[in-house]
Design a protein that fits this description.
By secondary structure, the protein is α+β, with helices and mostly antiparallel strands. 30% of the residues lie in helices and 16% in strands. The chain contains 10 helices and 12 strands. Helix 3 crosses helix 4 and helix 9 (310-318) packs antiparallel against helix 10 (320-326).
């Protein structure tokens, strides 16, 4: 398989239009708020969730090992039960998808307990996730989203955007954070752009185009195959959601022609966002972004469904101060 990250990294060098430098050049830098930083708030919430996870693991030591939540593809299998006549039983394997949902469930339960003080200490097992969910996390991870704060309201390119992180820049020393804006539709379809790729034009004629970011050296397509199969030319970000570059377009066309996928399983983005070493951390320190995990259906959405209200929707699902932010009017340019 081609190294898609290497393709993007070659496209981003030099990073003269990376997110931070673009913001600085756009004169939209603002002073951080004096209130407690988001990272501190998220760290407190997550630590509480981790304590719950450890407590539950102690009560059920044979089910699975705990996960650090650092973006690993899976959590190693727990040891098989000892002293029981169940040789055919297999240890339960926790996938990245199940861990993401488990972590989100812990967050939802904690929020429910906070809202109902008399149930303090109860797990509220009846509290379950809806089809769409979102919650804050401490640090960026592949598949997480960056949600623009009020600090970026006056930045034309990034104000009130949601960026889906394809990479958090920690895989190897050469890796750098990359992502795509997922709530800026171009309001044009592929057939309107008269692409030179005739098969692409014919296969995806009615597919909508989106603005993925200011770095136009490469375009990105998201692919939602609906299962955990691996496909040549596409790299999985979270279970059921992969991405490809321009070099993946031929493979996308072939998957549709063979009936393996449908045109609505793909979304196309012109350009992407990229950061140099430590730039994303600096932007988080400056309070440019909230970091969140959310359900895949929020990221991909319905076929040709408008994504313009995604910023508000995710913040409202996160609740509390984030929901309040979603209702605030945008600052004037």
């Amino acid at each position: 398989m081609m190294d898609l990250r290497s393709t993007l990294l070659r496209s981003t060098l030099p990073l003269s239009f990376s997110c931070d430098s673009f913001i600085e050049k756009s004169a939209c830098r603002a002073s951080p708020r004096t209130a407690a930083s988001f990272l501190g708030i998220a760290a407190g919430k997550r630590s509480c969730c981790c304590v719950r996870a450890m407590a539950m693991a102690k009560r059920n030591p044979g089910n699975s090992n705990s996960s650090s939540g650092n973006g690993d593809r899976s959590v190693p299998n727990g040891d098989a039960s000892k002293g029981h006549d169940t040789p055919k039983s297999k240890p339960h394997r926790i996938t990245l998808d199940s861990w993401r949902e488990y972590r989100a469930t812990l967050w939802a339960r904690e929020q429910a307990e906070t809202a109902v003080p008399e149930h303090e200490g109860a797990l509220l097992d009846h509290k379950s996730l809806g089809q769409k969910w979102a919650h804050p996390i401490t640090l960026p991870e592949p598949g997480s989203v960056l949600i623009a704060t009020e600090t970026l309201d006056k930045c034309e390119m990034f104000g009130r955007t949601v960026i889906f992180l394809l990479s958090d820049g920690t895989k190897n020393p050469q890796d750098q954070p990359t992502g795509i804006v997922i709530n800026r539709p171009l309001h044009r379809k592929i057939k309107h752009m008269k692409p030179s790729h005739l098969d692409l034009a014919a296969t995806f004629a009615d597919s909508a185009l989106n603005i993925g970011g200011p770095l136009l050296e490469s375009s990105i397509c998201l692919f939602s195959p609906g299962d955990d199969r691996k496909f040549t030319g596409f790299e999985e970000v979270i279970p059921g959601l992969c991405y490809g570059t321009k070099q993946s377009l031929d493979e996308a066309v072939m998957l549709v022609k063979k009936g393996v996928a449908k045109p609505q399983d793909f979304k196309f983005f012109r350009g992407f966002a990229g950061w140099g070493r430590d730039q994303l951390k600096q932007e988080l320190d400056k309070n440019y972004w909230h970091v969140a995990a959310c359900s895949a259906n929020l990221i991909f959405g319905e076929y040709n469904e408008s994504s313009e209200g995604l910023w508000e929707e995710i913040l409202q699902l996160m609740g509390g101060q984030y929901a309040e932010l979603s209702r605030k009017p945008k600052l004037d340019m």
